[in-house]
UniProtKB/TrEMBL annotation:
Recorded family membership: Belongs to the DegT/DnrJ/EryC1 family.
Top-rank taxon: Bacteria
Protein name: dTDP-4-amino-4,6-dideoxygalactose transaminase
Source lineage: Bacteria, Bacillati, Actinomycetota, Actinomycetes, Propionibacteriales
InterPro entries per UniProt: DegT/StrS_aminotransferase, PyrdxlP-dep_Trfase, PyrdxlP-dep_Trfase_major, PyrdxlP-dep_Trfase_small
Organism the protein comes from: Microlunatus kandeliicorticis
GO MF terms, alphabetically ordered: pyridoxal phosphate binding; transaminase activity
Length: 384
């Protein structure tokens, strides 16, 4: 295979998808004078997010990580407690636990979805409680936009008396059992980072139905200022609020969210056709994905029956200036978390070894899409 001769911009897995409407609302926010930093667009963004996610309250924050951090503080995560996190996730989930001084404990996943394994979670909670550990929270992650099996996980956590904080960073617009992602747990965190299903360039939201929880997050996210004419502080706070300018971007993105999900779904269907008859390759999370937001599409490659490995395709794409990447490297394999307590089955290790995430963004134009499909098609033909 030869690299394309003409210079083309690199094709990324998930680039921001912004256009005229985003420009219009950001300019409107600028001209309104609400720059410093909160304003009416933050209020409106929160109102729409709460409605979209079936929640009473939404607090717009500077990142999804900030939302996780404050939610964890609110349920008492602190030194001397542990928090259960899936090992198959992005590091931010575990990092937020460490910020509180609590210790992350990693639990393996269901091989079909990559999401927290409910039976193993039950075993982990039972073992930890038997040892007298104080478990502050369980933080299930909606991997690549597939909602966790909350129908199974909710009762397990309730039985052990441990609150659920839902990491819905990747799953805005997905649903489970007829309820939107972000509506589960005592609180949920969504991310609007640049590579997510929609973006505020950087941002996040904390969602909850509990007024006191929302008030407390609002307070902690604005430097923990007491109501006084001077600056009065009785606790250490954070500077975690989303600005009005970024909320303007978010409002435009929310208008287009369903269309953007539709484009990602169409791309997944295209990959499904491309790999349909390829031995040893399956589309990850394909079963049941009518409820997913299809944030990222990944394949699993069994080298023994395919005759090639996921990394071979990654290299072939990279030569053509197209980005692809293995699935999240499990947290228990990360040097920074070496020695952390883990409950493992090997499922996450296998997904990491065999998975490849492909260009999935809604901003990909028809030319880029056919370029990606063409390069993969050539790769597959060469190996038949
Ligand atoms: C992106 C992401 C986060 C962090 O969100 P930021 O807005 O980037 O801080 C947390 N958890 C998961 C699973 C994510 O994918």
């Amino acid at each position: 295979m030869t690299a394309p001769t003409r210079l083309r911009e690199r094709i990324y897995m998930s680039s921001p998808d912004v256009g005229a409407r985003e420009e219009e609302l950001v300019v409107e926010a600028l001209r309104s004078g609400w720059i410093a930093p909160l304003g009416p667009m933050v209020d409106e963004f929160e109102r729409q997010l709460a409605e979209r996610c079936g929640r009473r309250y939404a607090v717009a924050l500077s990142s999804g990580t900030a939302a996780l951090h404050l939610a964890l503080l609110n349920v008492g995560a602190a030194p001397g407690t542990v928090v259960i996190v899936p090992t198959m996730t992005f590091a931010a989930t575990a990092n937020a636990v460490v910020y509180t001084g609590a210790e992350p404990v990693f639990v393996d996943c269901d091989p079909a979805t990559g999401n927290l394994d409910p039976a193993l979670l039950d075993q982990a909670l039972t073992a930890l409680r038997r040892e007298g550990a104080r478990v502050a929270a369980v933080v299930p992650v909606d991997l690549l936009g597939r909602s966790v099996d909350h129908t199974a996980i909710g009762p397990v956590c309730a039985e052990h008396g441990v609150p659920v904080i839902s990491d819905a960073a990747e799953s805005l617009g997905a649903s489970h059992a007829g309820r939107p992602a972000g509506s589960f747990g005592i609180a949920a965190a969504v991310s609007f980072n640049g590579n997510k299903i929609m973006t505020t360039s950087g941002g996040g939201v904390l969602l909850t139905d509990d007024a006191a929880f929302a008030d407390r997050v609002r307070y902690l996210s604005t430097q923990a200022r007491q109501p006084a004419v001077h600056y009065e502080h009785t606790e250490v706070g954070y500077n975690y609020r989303l600005s009005n300018l970024l909320a303007a971007l978010g409002l435009a993105q929310l208008e287009r969210l369903d269309a953007m999900i539709g484009r990602r779904r169409a791309l997944r269907a295209e990959y499904d056709r491309l790999f349909a008859d390829v031995a040893g390759v399956s589309l990850f999370q394909r079963v049941g994905d009518q409820y997913d937001n299809c944030w990222l599409t990944a394949i699993l490659v069994d080298p023994a029956s395919a005759g090639w490995a996921a990394d071979d395709l990654r290299s072939a794409l990279d030569v053509c200036n197209i980005e692809s990447r293995p699935l999240w490297k499990p947290m228990h394999q990360q040097p920074v978390f070496a020695g952390a307590r883990s409950f493992l089955t090997g499922a996450a290790d296998r997904l990491f070894a065999t998975g490849l995430t492909l260009p999935s963004g809604s901003a990909l134009g028809p030319e880029e899409r056919s370029e990606v499909m063409g390069v993969i098609g050539d790769f597959l033909r060469d190996r038949r």
